[in-house]
Amino acid sequence: METEISRTTRVGKIKYTNAWPVFHYFHPEQLQYSVEMVTEVPALLNRRMLEGGLEVSAMSSFAYAQGSDHFMLLPDLSVSADGPVKSILLFSREPLEKAVNGTIALTNTSATSVNLLKILVEKYLQGKPEYFTCEPDLTEMMQHADAGLLIGDHAIKASWENEGYYVTDLGQLWKNWTGFSMTFAVWAVRREAAASAPEAISEIVQAFQSSKERSRSNLTPLINQAVREIGGSEHYWHGYFSNLCYDFGMRQQQGLELYFNYAHELGLLEHEIKLQIWSDNTLTRVKE
């Protein structure tokens, strides 16, 4: 029988730059417990977590909600924005008020932003658009739609190359409407992993939180990597990383709960969601 020390925990890593601070100084080889990293776009990580192919992962907030019976949230870790997020963008030919009644192309790379758009369009702006899902290529999207939703690095690059489209930041639109911040990604653990390997999960959580704090104390390595790998200026990336929030305190939790409530009202989620956060208290109880 495998001992906990030899069991490997599979950890999902989001490819997008918005999650870099939590992962930049996360080094599995330095951990006592065995960790295997799996790097993918959010949609694939979400699927693997839902299917049990990963034990711990960064996840789209909406995907967490879909499988919340199987997950617990890791404490004080998220990708949130209290206003503009700069990488969840709707590009449209006409002003937003007109675009929300046209055809909108949706990226196929994440469910959180797609459903945030539906909430904003249908509840806030009272729009009645037609949607279709496709690859995140703005040129292709706009050949068939009046507006296109992009997220992550696709959205950032498209904003740099904007060819006269109106650009709506969904984080800012959400803040304008609700007054709350929006949490786009969370870190979660499958419940069976939390129960069977609590010491390993505790070590992983501490390593993530340490990476977050170290990154936040000096953004220069992240900025240099982003310029080198994606492009743009140091000024842009400093503003981008400084703008995002990687904590998951009461304000972020309240904003996310409101998002889930609206998603439930629109029938996007089958049931109401109660946030459940993993704690070292779990580990204490196991040891008693």
From TrEMBL:
InterPro entries: Menaquinone_biosynth, MqnA. Keywords: Lyase, Menaquinone biosynthesis. It catalyses: chorismate = 3-[(1-carboxyvinyl)-oxy]benzoate + H2O. Pathway: Quinol/quinone metabolism; menaquinone biosynthesis. It comes from the Bacteria. Pfam families: VitK2_biosynth (PF02621). Its EC number is 4.2.1.151. HAMAP family: MqnA. Catalyzes the dehydration of chorismate into 3-[(1-carboxyvinyl)oxy]benzoate, a step in the biosynthesis of menaquinone (MK, vitamin K2). Belongs to the MqnA/MqnD family. MqnA subfamily. This is Chorismate dehydratase. The gene is mqnA.
